[in-house]
Every structure is written in structure tokens, then in C-alpha cells.
Amino acid sequence: MPHSREQLLDIDAWWRATNYLSVGQIYLMDNPLVQRKLEAEDIKPRLLGHWGTTPGLNLIWAHLNRLIRERDVDAIVLAGPGHGGPAAVANAWLEGTYTEVYHRVGQDLEGMRRLFRQFSFPGGIPSHVAPETPGSIHEGGELGYVLSHAYGAVLDNPDLVAVAVVGDGEFETGPLATSWHCNKFVDPVNDGAVLPVLHLNGYKIANPTVPARIPREELEALLVGYGHEVFTVEGDDPLDVHRQMAEAMDAAHDRIAEIQRAAREDGDLVRRPWPMILLVTPKGWTGPAVVDGKQVEGTWRAHQVPLAGTRDNVEHRAQLEEWLKSYRPEELFEEDGRPVERLQALAPDGDRRTSANPHANGGLLRRPLELPPFASAAVEVKAPGASMHEPTRVLGHYLREVMRHNADRFRIFGPDETASNRLDAVYEVTDKVFAGEILDSDEHLAPHGRVMEMLSEHTCQGWLEGYLLTGRHGLFSCYEAFIHIVDSMFNQHAKWLKTTNEIEWRARIASLNYLLTSHVWRQDHNGFSHQDPGFIDHVVNKKSEVVRIYLPPDANTLLSVAEHCLASTQYVNVIVAGKQPSYDWLDAEQADLHCARGLGIWDWASTGGDDPDVVLACAGDVPTLEAVAAAGLLREHLPEVSVRFVNVVDLMRLQDERDHPHGLSGREFDAVFTADKPVIFAYHGYPWLIHRLTYHRTNHSNFHVRGYLEEGTTTTPFDMVMMNNLDRFHLVMDVIDRVEGLGQRAAGVRQLMMDTRRRARAWTREHGEDLPEVSGWQWSPTSPTSP
Fold first, then answer.
1. Where are the alpha helices (DSSP H) in 279-390?
2. In a domain, 385, yes or no
3. CA 448 to CA 654: how far, in whole Å?
4. Which tens digit of pLDDT belongs to each residue from 443-471?
5. Nearest CA-CA partner of 453 in 190, 184, 191
6. What gap in Å lies between CA 509 and CA 500, rounded to an integer?
7. Could you tell me the residue range of the domain that residue 470 belongs to?
8. What is the CATH number of the domain that holds 477?
């Protein structure tokens, strides 16, 4: 149905108002309605912000509001060009939401002045679509993730439409290119819909964009190939563009409704092209056309601040005043700064406003998971080291029940590794979702599955973030070495959490849970390229109130940690656990107590009394195995040495309580690790992290840490630990070297350890497997196997 001129003029009024508010944020400290001639003191001394993308974003918001009002659409906006922060803030203020959450920024002249002054100003708000912005779940400071976030948001949200604005600069990023395929993972019965809007304004900071400089038919063929029906809106005449955009929005929504109706009512699950809009407008549209004799509008010069000298340059200031008045603010705002009634009537009602939509403040919608007690999946442990299990396979049985009880709010994400990481028990209650062609030879693929697998760590991370930010729960399972691919995405999410902790109106969301397996010590078959435990070091750099790191030593402690992490909110939890068969050390009750403490003394692996000669500590499953084996060798060969055995599950317990909420007090730490005895610490990752975490401890100078030394290859499991001096024999040598007076008395034992290491290395080279006394080792407190 054609849209009337009156409707289009209403949309244009909203667009002009938000453009005016956006320009004001970039430039003005005072005189918000330009009710007098602009003076130097009205202009900010530092002009920060991005104008170029802003008018296009405002156009999309204006038209989406019309669609929401007319069709009662439940919609949110994700701005890929996140530096277009002025647009998001302007729309939130005009909708009234901004004033509702920030009472000081009222919908009046003083509120407008504060709105302008705070933007990109010390003590104010960032220039991006940041957590401080109502309606935002995607900051866009780093480009490439808007589509994966949007698709994560609509999973299990059947009525939600996520409008994802893709900048044509962002279009060039690797993660964005991959995420065009997300539409192959949408279930039109149970999920909502994403409406991508590719905003083609031609330029990045200083260069043209690739999609703007290839033939249009080539670009549209690419988008069609990605699985989209393309509706093109193009031009620079406002009313004509408004007409095209209104028609495109209606047509796109009609297509979405028909795809969902056919799937939900007729059972028609044949994958059809999902709609998208290609919006082609000039960069910096409606801004200054020419500045200092150089074209600005429609060029890269419009990207940030088109008039850079307005505080000191009279001509620039006059141009700014002319620019602001070109939006005819007297038609849009009362003299006291209030939006005129005409504008107020254009905002959707209540929660239908995109800036007030609960999905954009997902903690409001979050319901806790129904978690079975982890003990229901625990393995029986009759004695330490008497049995073996694959920890992540045991966890898979627990996650199966979590999935069964939370079929509307829990998903597992990973890059083609759910079965590889031994979590495939979940397939007993769900499948992997896939909307593409499914062959008879395929296993566990279905249109309605709840496991999300795509060979793109970026996309999996983006899906999970979007899912969490809109109120749901999930787990990301990945090979340890390759989680680094999302280092920067983790950065952004951790910063988001840190910031939202300080925003009262932001409700807490479920934690982002990583399960890192196929880890450094059991990538002996894949080799050096797959061996890297450094993600932990990266995570530790973030604020202590946000990050948690767990290194469960066996299956039951992994279950306890997983239950705790899945129930938590507002953290990034990193769990590192192996998938290969490993010894069971603790029964369910012991595991629960040990994980609650975060670290503890294992009396059964210790010898002597309360005044040890040495502390043998460990963190991680393979380091625990080697440390326990070393304790056995010490018990056999040096029974007079008093050994205290300490296992660490929660790595942050090593920090001081003043540095991390989980940290031990100085007194508690010294009670466990002693204040003056040597500590031999077998650690999963790079050894210097333990030194960093314990740097301020009383006994730090006596800490001697063994860990990964960036030595690896395709070899046997035990040869890997020997290459990095983490093996049991080297740990015994470390004890001999560090305990005062033991060196001379134990010279023979030390030599035996060295010789056994050489023999173990030679055995692997000859037989291609580990020494039988190593591969067949079992813990026995009375008769450990001798080398």
C-alpha cells in the first residue's frame, strides 16, 4: 500500500530531529537550540565523534519506528557502525527512554544541553553505541560482529526481529563475511528473524569501501548467494528515499512473516531467501557539502568531524550554525527544548521502543537455569587414582540433562567440535541445528536442533554473546589453542560486563562460559600448531570482578565447576579440562568441598606432618597427574622428606584478596603454602603467570614453577611434559634441588631421575609410545611403581 506524503513527512521530521540531536552531540557544549548566534564557548574544545554513518542510522531508526507502530513489531537495532553513537543516543532521547534511565538528562532545554555536553566529553559517555546507551547490545567499537550478535539474539525468540545495520567498511572484515551464513542456522518455527541492512555510503576513514566500488550486480549476486532477497533503497532526495525505504521495510517484513507462517502453520521448512535491505546514501548526508573548498558530503572527509575548526574558525562556526538550522529545529522542538507533540506521537509505545525493548537489556528477561545437582552425573571413586574416566564425556552426560530441562534457554556453541570434545551425549536430547540440505548419511542434523556448530570461532562467539545479552544461557566449547581466534571478541565482552556492572539500570546477564579442551598437553598427535595455553594469560588481564578461571583436575571436579559456572551471572568463566581418559581423584562430596575452597591440601598425597619440607602444588589435570606421580616417587625414594600436596582448581585463589574477590588473604595463603618453604608448582600454562599472581605473597621468592615453555611437536603425551620439564621425574629433581640440605643426601635419587628421563625419551623414539611404567602407572600410597 503506498505511503501518504503526510506519513513520509512525519518520518522526515523524526529523521531531521535525530540528525539535529546527533550534530549537537558532536559539537555543542551550550546553546543547544542555537537560540542565539554560536560563540566559541558554545563549542567543545575537543571534537570527537563520527558523523559520516549517522544520518543513515537515523534514517533506519525512523523507518523502523513507523513499522513498529503500524504492525506492533517486537524489534531491536544493532548498529554495526557502532561509532555512529550519536544516532543511538539521539533516538533514545527522542523516544523518552534516555530521560527515564538518566533523570538529569530531561526532555527539555537543560536536558538537551546535558545530552550534548556529555557526549565524548570527560566524565560523560563514549562515542560508540556503548553499554551506557539504552537499547544497545552491540557496541560496535570493533567491527565484524553485528550479524552474529543479531542472530544470537533471535535464537529461541520467535517474535523478535533484530535489525542489523552492516556498515560497508565492516563488510570487509573476515568475521562479517563468515556471518552472512548465519541464516542457514535459523529455525523459522522457534527463532525470530534478522533483517540485515547493508548501508553502502562508500567510504571508510580514508578509503573507499570494496562493496561500493564493485559493480552493483556483482554485489547483489554475492548477497543473493549468501541466501538473501535484496531490496535496494538508493538516492539522496530525502522524500524519495523515505518512500523507497518505507516500501522496502514493509516488503521485508512481509517476507519474514510469510516464511515464519509457512513454517509454523504449514510445516514448510524448505529454506527460502531471507530479506535484507541494501541502503545506498551519501556518506555524511545532509552535512556540509564543501568545507574549505573541498568536497565533504559523499566522501571520506565526512567520516568523523566535517568541520574540525569550529571553536577557533569563524567561518567553520558559521557553517555549523547553518548546518544545524538546515534541520529547522523550530519545527521540531519547543522553545523549552521539549520535542513537539508531532514527534512525540511518532515514538512507539512503552517496551516497543527499541531503546526500551527488554531484549536489549536481557537481564530483565533472564530466568535461572534448572540445574540438576552435579552429583547426579558424578562417577564413583573408591580411592584416589583407582579408576579413570574422560572428564568431558562425563560432563556431556550432565549437559544432556541441563539441555533436557532448559530447552528454551540453553544452547551449546562450538566450531565443529562438540563430538570431538566428548560432549555428544547431548545428542540424546537434541540435534545440531541446520537449515540447509540434510543427507541420509548425516547424523544429528535437524532444523530444530539446539547445538550450534559452524567452523568459525568468531561466529560461535558472536552467537553466544547475542544469546546471553538477550537473557539466555550457554556454553562455548573449543580447542584450547584456537580460542585465541576470539581474543578480541572476549576483550569487548569483558569490557561490556565491566561497564554494565556500574550501570544501575542494566540487569545482570548469564555468564559467558568457555570450556577449553583438547588442550596443550593432549595435543601430542596434532603437534606444535595445536599447543598453546595462553588464553588464560589473556583473560587474567581483565578486571578481577569479571573473570574467573578454573582448572579442574578430574571428572567430578569438572562437574562441580560446570554447575557453579552455569548458575553464575555477569562473569566470563574459563574452564580448562581434558577429554582423554584420566584418573579420578575425588568422589562427588570431596570434589564439591574442594571446588568450594578453590584450592586445598590433599592429605592422601602428602607425607609428614604440619611442618612440611616442601610444598608440591599443581593446577590442571596433566600437571596434577605428574605432581601426584612425583609425590609417589618421593614417598618411595625419599620417605624422610615431608611433602605437602596442594591442588588448585580456582586459579584466582592465588591472588591477594585485595586484587581479586576470590583471592586468599595473606594469612590463609601462608597457612597453605607456608611462609618460608620451597614450593614446586606444576602448572597447566605458561609458568610466569603463577609468578605474576603470587608476586606479592610472603613466600614468592621460594616459588619454582614448571609449565609450558613453548616446546612442542607431534610426540607422545609423556614426551610432551618432558620437553617442558613438567614431568614427574623433573619435579622430583626440583624438590631435591630446592629443599635445603637434600642435594648431597639425595644425589643418587636425582641421578636416577635423570637417567629415567633419558630412558623414557629413548623409548618413545624407538617404540613410538610412552615407557610402560609411565603409561601403566597407577597411584599407590604404599607401593608406587619404581622407575
1. 314-325, 341-344
2. no
3. 44
4. 999 999 999 999 999 999 999 999 999 99
5. 184
6. 10
7. 390-583
8. 3.40.50.970
Considering only CA atoms, which of 632, 663, 645, 606 is closest in space to residue 779?
A: 632
Q: What is the pLDDT of residues 4-16, one digit of tens each?
A: 999 999 999 999 9
Question: Residue 233 domain-assigned?
Answer: yes
Q: Which of 643, 642, 641, 637 is nearest to 751 (CA)?
A: 637
Cell of 694: 603470587
Which residues touch 765 (CB under 8 Å, ≥6 apart)? Answer: none
Give the Cα separation of 736 and 637 in Å (integer).
11
Task: Tell me, yes or no, whether 522 and 642 share the same domain.
Answer: no
Which helix (H) or strand (E) covers residue 648, if one does? strand 643-648
pLDDT at 723: 93
Tell whether 285 and 136 lie within a shared domain.
Answer: yes
Q: Say if residue 285 is in the same domain as residue 342.
A: yes
Number of domains in the chain: 3
Verify that 327 and 421 share a domain, yes or no: no
Torsion over CA: 319, 323, 326, 329 (sign): negative
- On whether both 331 and 459 belong to a single domain, the answer is no
* β-strand partners of 119: 125
Question: How many angstroms separate the CA atoms of 675 and 697, rounded?
Answer: 9
Give the pLDDT band (50/70/90) at residue 787: very low
Q: Are 730 and 719 in contact (CB under 8 A)?
A: no
Same domain flag for 543 and 637: no
Quick one: 528 and 578 in the same domain?
Answer: yes
The pTM for the full model equals 0.96
Q: How confident is the model at residue 785 (pLDDT cuts 50, 70, 90)?
A: very low
**Would you tell me how many other CB atoms lie within 10 Å of the CB of residue 782?**
7
Residue 1 binned pLDDT confidence (cut-offs 50, 70, 90):
low
- What nine digits make up the cell of 552? 579442574
Given this model, what pLDDT does residue 300 score?
94
Crossing angle of the two packed helices 728-738 and 621-637, in degrees rounded to 10:
60
Is 593 part of a structural domain of the chain? no
The C-alpha atoms of residue 58 and residue 129 are separated, in whole angstroms, by 13
Distance CA(580)–CA(692), nearest Å, equals 30
Cα 315 from Cα 227, distance rounded (Å): 50
Residue found by looking up cell 633419558 in the block: 758
Q: Which residues of 526-559 are buried (b: 16+ CB within 10 A; e: fewer)?
A: eeeebbbbbbbebbbebebebbbbbbbbbbbbbb
Averaged pLDDT for residues 125-133? 94
Question: Quick check: 163 pLDDT over 90?
Answer: yes
**E-state strands within 407-557:** 410-414, 432-433, 445-446, 451-453, 473-479, 512-517, 547-550
Mean pLDDT score, 414-435:
94
Helix (H, G, I), strand (E, B) or coil at 463: helix
